[in-house]
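pasting for ref. prot 1 ->
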Amino acid sequence: MVDNNCKIMVTGATGQIGSELVLELRSKYGNDNIIAVGHRTQPEEDLLNSGPFEFADTTNKQALSDIIDKYNIKVIYHLASLLSAVGENKPDLLWDINMIGLKNVLDLARDKHMAQVFWPSSIAAFGPTTPKDNTPNETIMRPNTIYGVSKVAGELLCEYYHHKYGLDVRSLRYPGIISSETLPGGGTTDYAVDIFYQAIEKQKYISFVSESTTLPMMYMPDCIKATIELMLADKNNLKHQCFNVTAMSFSVSELAKEIKKHIPDFVCDYKPDYRQTIADTWPKSIDDGLARQEWGWQPSFDLSKTVKYMLEKIDLKLSKEKEATCQK
């Protein structure tokens, strides 16, 4: 990372990760130094009120170029993406957003001599022939979803720009991300967020994947921490551009059991749909040893701590929303 006065652009700023990353970066580097870029017409007030916000489609290269020039951007966190479950129903749209958008960012970063680019990969880059337990950083990657294909292609494209043009581009393979602040956004691991809302409001949840489905996960504060720490890491210590990163792995039934400790009447039923076939191709656990070795990654949240914080934060959030509705 360059100095604290560096202008940083975050695309996908209204998404699950982007919305929280923008606020954390603004807290760390100053509100005016973090330019949020989103495609939605009505971003959250926190994003609009805390610093610069620009509306842009990342498939529009000229629009991105204009924003970069306007603010003299030196670092890009490119989080704009269409997720796995939505992507299976809209493969052409996913390819445009995930691949054309990424290439636009890499081209502009190269041509405008950017200091750094961050781009998130995913455990979706792995596939049914990948070892499922303790999946290593370098292994077989033959996904059978369009989202996974875009992530493998994206990893290779980022690596190409690093070796060909010397671009400092860094990536994390995110596991499922659990957040109390933003609603699910069309991913296969959405159940690990929605279950908390349903547990609090209805004491019941119907999971769209089976009770034994086990996937690597991470609570959002750890996700944000890992992202920023990777970008702050001394590049002389990095032998890789893309890293596995995780905090825990659990099955849906294990998650439900942990929630039940706090909400005794909670019941979880299971009705797997098409998302089950996607989840079945992903690892049950991943080895993030290289991230720990090369830049000191260490998660802060396990399952029990995550469940406790999620229930507390969502309960407070829903109470405030109900109070605001009653006052209207």
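and prot 2 ->
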Amino acid sequence: MDETLIHCVKSGEQGPGDFQIQIEIDAEQIVMEINVRPGAAELLRKMSKSFQIVVFTASHKKYADAILNRLDPARKYISKRLYRDSCFEVQHDVLS
């Protein structure tokens, strides 16, 4: 999600974004400026006609949902959302 569909910075670090989100992470209120990549909305709309769109982010669920709810408020385009807690570690023996 980050750096693909959107670019995000803490409020005040750059100029105003396309929209702001305010989230609480670890008991801290953070205001973030969100810039949507040019063409991102059109990409989601067109691609969803032919593909199931799954968005993955290594970010917190609260942060990701606040952004994805703005990009796809009716949940018409993004089929699944995967977050950092959707991952798990798998041990592989590379020499086998």
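Residues 61-71 form the longest helix (11 residues).
Residues 6-86 form a domain with the Rossmann fold fold (CATH 3.40.50.1000).
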